[in-house]
């Protein structure tokens, strides 16, 4: 694939495969993420009524809301990539959806970190954790996280996000380089559950966020195209293209977190898993009883 040449002699590195891959992948993420996170909110609402999982429930609720905000922005990105990277919506929508992408990324990291600390605290200080729910602390932590991530996203909301090139193709947040039992056994089980949850959280970090932050630095040097001095890299076109392709893949991986977060919840607390299994069992039982009643009704009619 040949890079696009700009009027000033610089090149806009593009990855053609994303115009096929991203609409399909984001479409799947949109459907699964919407259903999974709405279901999670339903469960968390029930847990609120039972006054269970005070602090961790607050973290889960806020993480789910952040995921839903990102999911709601996906249809715009699906349309963007379906039109071969041409943004046909208002500049404000570009800024808003880009900001939601940024907010979801760092809200997910911080809320997952808060959940991890909550589980660690529950294992190391089980008596204190059992005697209080610390909902006020959970609310304060969530407010701080939201204020921090939203304030960091302000530049995305203020600075124009769209950029129209010489071919009258409007890009959204890209193309700027063309310008510039016993207590001991019970404690062991707690440790195993905490370790399972820790592996799940670390797994989300490694799969969704680590690749992007590893590739972000070299990719930035590639797109800035600094000709000399600090920041200049002497990579050939194939290497530059490889970094750009890898960067596009990491953006896709970041979107997967809204599907993986509900899976992490299953490792976070036994109450959450227990209610999910009970709800699924009730749904199956209700369906079987309904089918049985329909069969009996048909037999009576005949």
Automatic annotation (TrEMBL):
One of its GO terms (biological process) is chemotaxis. It is found in: Cell membrane. It comes from the Eukaryota. Keywords: Cell membrane, Chemotaxis, Disulfide bond, G-protein coupled receptor, Glycoprotein, Membrane, Receptor, Transducer, Transmembrane, Transmembrane helix. One of its GO terms (molecular function) is platelet activating factor receptor activity. GO terms for cellular component: plasma membrane. The chain crosses the membrane at residues 20-44, 56-78, 98-117, 138-159, 194-215. It is a multi-pass membrane protein. Interacts with ARRB1. Belongs to the G-protein coupled receptor 1 family. This is Platelet-activating factor receptor.
């Amino acid at each position: 694939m040949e890079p696009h040449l700009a009027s000033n002699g610089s090149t806009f590195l593009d990855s053609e495969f994303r115009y096929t891959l991203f609409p399909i992948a984001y479409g799947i993420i949109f459907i699964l993420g919407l259903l999974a996170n709405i279901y999670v909110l339903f469960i968390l609402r029930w847990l609120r009524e039972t006054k269970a999982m005070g602090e961790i429930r607050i973290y889960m609720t806020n993480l789910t809301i952040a995921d839903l905000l990102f999911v709601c922005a996906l249809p715009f990105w699906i349309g963007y990539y379906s039109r071969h990277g041409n943004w046909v919506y208002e500049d404000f929508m570009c800024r808003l959806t880009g900001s939601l992408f940024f907010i979801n990324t760092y809200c997910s990291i911080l809320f997952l970190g808060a959940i991890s600390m909550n589980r660690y605290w529950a294992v190391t200080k089980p008596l204190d954790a059992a005697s209080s729910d610390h909902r006020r602390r959970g609310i304060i932590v969530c407010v701080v996280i939201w204020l921090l991530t939203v304030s960091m996203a302000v530049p995305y909301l203020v600075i124009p996000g769209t950029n129209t090139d010489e071919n009258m193709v409007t890009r959204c947040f890209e193309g700027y380089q063309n310008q510039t039992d016993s207590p001991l056994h019970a404690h062991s089980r707690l440790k195993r559950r905490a370790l399972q949850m820790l592996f799940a959280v670390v797994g989300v970090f490694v799969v969704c966020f680590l690749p992007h932050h590893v590739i972000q630095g070299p990719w930035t040097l590639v797109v800035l195209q600094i000709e000399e001095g600090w920041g200049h890299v002497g990579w050939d076109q194939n290497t530059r293209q490889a970094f750009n392709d890898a960067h596009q893949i990491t953006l896709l991986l970041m979107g997967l977190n809204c599907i993986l977060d509900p899976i992490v919840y299953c490792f976070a607390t036994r109450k959450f898993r227990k209610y999910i299994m009970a709800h699924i069992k009730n749904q199956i039982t209700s369906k079987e009883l309904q089918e049985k009643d329909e069969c009996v009704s048909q037999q009576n009619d005949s």
